[in-house]
Amino acid sequence: MTTRRAVPAVVGACLAVAAASLLLPWALAFDPQAWVVWGRDAARFALDTRGGPSWKPLPVVVTTPLSLTGAPAPALWLLVARAGGLLAIAGAAALGARLGGRAAGAAAAALMALSTWWAFNTALGNSEGLLAAAVLWAVVAHLAGRRRAALALATAAALLRPEVWPFLGLYGLWLWRADPPARRAVAVAAVLVPLLWAFPDLFGMPGLAGASRAARGEPSIGSAALESVPFLAVLADAVSVLTIPALAAALIAVIAGSRTQRLLGVAAAAWVLIVAVMAQAGYAGNPRYLVAAAAVGCVLAGVGAARVTPLLPLVVVIAAAVITVPDLRDQLTDVGHRADRREALPRMVAAAGGRHAVARCRVRTAQDARPLVAWELDVSMYGIDRPPQRPDVVVRWRPYGGGAVEPALDPAGYRLLGRAPGWEAWSSCGQ
């Protein structure tokens, strides 16, 4: 079990490993790259969320001060996000060991590391690792009697995903009655969460309302909303994200385990049901929305397997690995392609004459490239993905998975400024 004294060492170790990982080629996914742009704009008091993904408060709270470092800001956010992913594994190990012994903790950590969501999202700087870390360490803190720390971690989680809100609300109500000295902290959380989610809305930009609209908009590939019965699709995704061997082991912990294990199982199931009901109501139901439930499921799987026999945790981990490793290979290839695109963009800008030459008039680019281009050229994301219209500079790219160069462009009236692998810039400024 991780003691209070060991926590700083765990955090330091995760930060060190995350920093070392940046020596390898890296890239940010669409959302994290947009958060970095928003952080830069917020630091300049020019935040405009209309050109990006749905609003998440916590990442922008972090990227705003990081933006003051200038060019290193994307790497620094990735450092934070990857450290969060590693802390999620440490949290799974700590909680699993507390509930079921060392073998349970080791199995929980291994199941998370081998899951299809952990490596991909952590590598690309998404917030799922931070979310899982906040949720698991909140449970560890509560079981250790550190209720205010648990509340703070749950509040951080609530600033990443709205599905946390009901759980935070219930915990806040319980803490209000059980620990009167903590009422001030509960009140702060009750004000802080809605305020930060709705902050852009106060200035006429998409915040909480925009996040809701975005979640009900066109779903991404693989989302449950694309299926004929989204509710059932979410349930199937929950099984797939956790894997059948891990789910079977987790059920053992819920059925035959302690009251704490049953409560964790109920909470994880409730999370899945919230996502399923929202998907049926028109929201996307993306599989990554299930990450917090899957993280708890990994812990319960380790505990349940260890309860049966000392060998079963290893068997469950191997069985899960057989299922997930092929996907992990594909994800590694995808991350490599993204890193190549990120590294090539500055070379293209240099070949085109530098940032000022490329951004001398309005910039247009492909929808999926807009946060990366906006960061590199130091322009706003808002409107950058509109169709080319002279006079403008069009930054075109070839998507990670291949296909035609985007956006489509009639070269009449344009001249080529520069090229690099996967990128090209065309200008009609002054023509």
Sheet having the most strands: 4 strands, mixed
Spans of at least 5 consecutive residues with low confidence: none
Radius of gyration: 23 Å
Please bin the fraction of helical residues: 55-70%
Compute the separation of the termini in Å.
68 Å
What count of domains describes the coordinates?
2
The overall average pLDDT, rounded, is 94
Given helix and strand content, the structural type is mainly alpha
Strand content: under 5%
Explain this structure to me?
There is one protein chain. The chain has 431 residues and is mainly alpha-helical. The chain has two domains: 6-308, no CATH class; 335-427, no CATH class. The chain is built from 18 helices and four strands. The chain has helices at residues 6-21, 30-43, 57-66, 73-100, 102-114, 118-123, 128-143, 147-158, 165-178, 183-198, 208-215, 230-242, 244-256, 259-280, 291-308, 312-351, 355-358, 370-377, and strands at residues 363-365, 393-397, 415-420, 423-427. Strands 1-2-4-3 form a four-stranded mixed sheet, with helices on one face. A hairpin with a 2-residue loop joins β3 and β4 (423-427). α7 (128-143) packs antiparallel against α8. It is globular, with a radius of gyration of 23 Å. The chain starts with 5 loop residues before the first helix and ends with a strand. The model has no long low-confidence stretch (mean pLDDT 94).
